[in-house]
Amino acid sequence: MTGYALAAAEHPRGALSLELKSVNSRFLDLQFRVAEELRALEPLLREAITARVARGKVDCRLSFAPGAAGAQSLDPAALESLRRIAGEAERAFPQAGPLRLGDVLRWPGVLGGPAPDAEEFRGALAALAGRAVEDLCAARAREGAKLAALLAGRVAEMRRRLAEVAPLVPEANAAYQARLAERLREALGAADDERLRAELAVFAVKTDVAEELQRLASHLEEVERTLSRGGAAGKRLDFLAQELNREANTLAAKAATQKIADCALELKLLIEQLREQVQNIE
Question: Of 196, 154, 158, which is closest to residue 178 (Cα–Cα)?
């Protein structure tokens, strides 16, 4: 499921900012972009996210802006070394221009300062991660509620299709058996009743969809129970969608009339729509 969260916190050494973005994915995929000073604390972020999120592609960005206590300053020794090197270079290349301020500031070691220790940020980052993950989960929960309502609508529509199919089956079987019996008599002439009964029995077995209709209804009830129960339900719903599709395929293969076949096709379309949305649910 998709979600977004942004949290910030002040620290004596600087400001921390944590941004979390979540998009749909069948599995949990974490991507981190962490300030170099805090790279050692990446496992803390990973633990905070995996404790609450089980599915989705989550992009985590942690930035750090040094404050007054962590401000950089010029290193006199590095400046003196650079001045000596620049003098030697100028004597060797008298036509070369003088160093610019930007060149000086980019010279390794010129800008220095107390390097922050990642461990001193651990407590602040743990609290910050807790707030950000909580906000992310709240956003995902809101989207989950909308998806649950959408899936409930699909289930209701499938129930209506099943209600349309059920009364068609006995009538369709009776009409088809009558046509089959007539064709057998025409083809075999004076066919004995035993042969007709055998052929009709085989047909009845092949076109009996009562079990498929019952299983479809049972699976739909389980989908509704799973949605009402809440929590992490994506994998279970994905499995139920596969089972629904399997029964709908069998129903279509056994359809004795075009009306039943059309209803089975509509069921398959609704199930496919359900499967697409289930991929977005944790």
Answer: 196
Q: Which of 100-104, 106-110, 133-137, 147-151 has the lowest mean pLDDT?
A: 106-110
Helix (H, G, I), strand (E, B) or coil at 183: helix
The DSSP element (H or E) to which 7 belongs, if any, is strand 3-11
Closest CA to 277 of 8, 20, 26, 7: 26
Q: Quick check: 208 pLDDT over 60?
A: yes
What is the bridge-based pairing of β-strands 56-66 and 73-74?
unpaired
Q: List the beta bridge partners of residue 14.
A: 11, 66
For residue 140 the two structure tokens come to 């995902």
Residue 251 has pLDDT above 80, yes or no: yes
Six token digits for residue 203: 């047909």
Q: Which residues pair with 3 in a beta bridge?
A: 22
What does the block give as tokens for 217?
């209804």
| pLDDT of 31 above 90 | yes
Is pLDDT of 63 > 80? yes
Pick the CATH number of 3-69+124-139 from 3.40.640.10, 2.20.70.10, 3.40.50.1110, 3.30.230.10: 3.30.230.10
Ordered by start, the domain boundaries in the chain are 3-69+124-139, 72-112, 140-278
Lowest mean pLDDT among 104-108, 206-210, 242-246: 206-210
Separation of alpha carbons 212 and 89, rounded Å: 88
The 3-state secondary structure of 215-227, one letter per residue = HHHHHHHHHHHHH
